[in-house]
Amino acid sequence: MSHQANVLIFDSGVGGLSVYKEIEVRLPQLNYTYIFDNEAYPYGELEHDTLIQRVERLITQLVSEHNIDLVVIACNTASTIVLPTLRAHLNIPVVGVVPAIKPASNLANKAVGLIATPATVTREYTHDLVRDFSQSKPVKMLGSTRLVDMAEEKLRGKVVDLKELEQVLEPIAHHIDVAVLGCTHFPIIKSEIQQVLGEHVVLVDSGEAIARRVQTLLELESAQGVGVREIYSTAPPWEERALNCALAELGFNPVLHFHLAI
Ligand code: DGL
């Protein structure tokens, strides 16, 4: 590869930025294009086929327009169903993120909590992961779109309401000693989740494993220099001043509008 690699990171919202951070810290020299599909957000409530078709259209267009070398589907809800289709249609590596059931089960003595979107907790893929890797430890699942919204709001400057968070997590709170953050939005509110569940609960996410995978596929070491960072959303990003401030801290210019071709 003669140029610095162009990496595309994709999510329905700002959640994929938690994965971007893990990759970027290892490989700052690469060029990153981040896209969030806020026009179709939340993915956790989309129909199966609608989601597959939409992600395929978006990614195919982006890959050809931005000369992409590697795609990261930084969304558990999408990855648990779209990866086979994308890999069949693209001739570049596609890395996905799925709930970290295996490492969590290795750590658990009591039970694992899987916190994800309503769609991810019902996916066959997720149930297969539990069957194959939970080592007979009980896995208690909690699907919540409100948690995803809370992460979106936090990145736009709103303080997380801990009382509300406590209510959302209540069904699993006192029964687990390890929790899987099975949605890329949740590392954004990790400190608040930790506060509510208590320090005795270990929180596990897939971000670092994804970053290692990207590094292995590109066969690269960290190098001097910082590549180009661009961020797009599918809905016109008006009134996103607070978000743009948070994005500036991650090295991005203000959000641009991505036009999905008909
Ligand atoms: N960040 C996404 C995930 O990892 C989903 C958020 C949504 O429901 O749109 O599953």
From TrEMBL:
Pathway: Cell wall biogenesis; peptidoglycan biosynthesis
Positions of substrate binding: 11-12, 43-44, 76-77, 184-185
Enzyme class: isomerase
A GO MF label: glutamate racemase activity
Record-listed E.C. numbers: 5.1.1.3
Keywords for this protein: Cell shape, Cell wall biogenesis/degradation, Isomerase, Peptidoglycan synthesis
Role summary: Provides the (R)-glutamate required for cell wall biosynthesis.
Designated name of the protein: Glutamate racemase
Highest classification ranks of the organism: Bacteria, Pseudomonadati, Pseudomonadota, Gammaproteobacteria, Vibrionales
